[in-house]
Amino acid sequence: MARSGALAAVLLLSAVGARAADMPVFKITIRDGTISPTRIEAPAGTRFKLEITNAGKSPAEFESISLRKEKVLGPGVTSFVVVNPTSPAQHVYFDDFHPQAKGVLVIK
């Protein structure tokens, strides 16, 4: 019984991984008070990934209040957040440790 449960878990994780690999990916780089790009356009109704890299020498926190996403990154760290399908909208994102570093995600 436990063996079939483990097999089911492995199959489920494989399916999730395959779907994640098929998602569009938009890359964001944060570097000690700057963020790039400052504008990203993504299709509405499509699940996608924001891959975020902290290329700076200080910690960074990617945050978007309207998307309800945040991710703290140490120097040199890359991670991601997944954005689920949404209606057309604009979402501001910023580095919470350096609030002047802002960008906008336009979903259309």
Can you characterise this structure?
- The chain contains 1 helix and 9 strands; from the N terminus they run H-E-E-E-E-E-E-E-E-E.
- The protein is of the alpha+beta class.
- The strands form 2 sheets. It has a 5-stranded mixed beta sheet with strand order 3-9-8-5-6, with no helix packed on it.
- The N and C termini lie far apart (47 Å).
Keywords:
108 residues; alpha+beta; five-stranded mixed β-sheet; 1 helix; 19% helix
Range of strand content: over 45%
User: Helix/strand/pairing class, anyone?
Assistant: alpha+beta
Strand order of the largest sheet: 3-9-8-5-6
- Using only C-alpha atoms, the radius of gyration works out to 16 Å
Morphology call:
globular
User: Residue share in helices?
Assistant: 10-25%
Straight-line N-to-C gap:
47 Å
Order of helices and strands: HEEEEEEEEE
- E-strand count: 9
Q: Please report the number of helical segments.
A: 1
The biggest sheet, with number of strands, parallel, antiparallel or mixed sense and barrel status, is: 5 strands, mixed
Low-confidence stretches: 9-16
Give average pLDDT, whole number. 87
SSE topology sketch:
Blueprint: H1 2-21, E1 25-31, E2 34-36, E3 39-42, E4 48-54, E5 60-64, E6 69-73, E7 78-83, E8 89-95, E9 98-107
Parallel strand pairs: 1-4, 3-9
Antiparallel strand pairs: 1-2, 4-7, 5-6, 5-8, 8-9
